[in-house]
Amino acid sequence: MKVNQAEFVISAVGPSQYPEDALPEIALAGRSNVGKSSLINCLISRKNLARTSSQPGKTQTLNYYKVNQDLYFVDLPGYGYAKVSKTKREQWGKFIENYLLNRETLRLVMQLVDLRHPPSKDDQAMYEWLRHNDVPVLVVATKADKIPKSQWAKHLKIVRETLGMDKGVQPLMFSSELTLGKDELWGILEQAIAYGEPEVEAAEAPAGTIETNEEVIQREPS
Which stretches are annotated as coiled coil (predicted)? Predict the structure, then answer.
């Protein structure tokens, strides 16, 4: 996809603020500081459209970024930040859960994990929850530039095994600094939102059709 226009639209605190133009949505989930903003900026070839909070864990909203007239990236609040109270985490959890389960225009969740480290318990819980609820998910392993290329395969295997991913399903390795994985990721996202297909077909597609996109994210390990 050639990005001609990208803009921040709204920091939504509830369904009443969500956009109503029915464009498909791609959500980004992950721990604070995993690189969600950097990934968005890399995909749209902009440096500072999506900005990282100066206080990780502070963001309590769904940040909507509109790309062309084709889709929204929806940046979810980061999870796993120690300084956030248990009560606040529970509130965020219900807020995010409601969006992920009930947002009709949601097409795919990109769950970002840090390639340098084994996925945390929060990462594991999020992945298990998404799979249990049949929410289409693509695991993106970020910050590949921070470790030697010779270690990539080893770390990808750790991510895959720690999350308990199905055989044949491979995390997508990504680096915002190197733009590594950018073209492959766009290809997956285009298929997830049925980019380029006639609007009538997209509108008439059954609600469960997105489940077939698991074929997109089930790639044989290289």
Answer: none
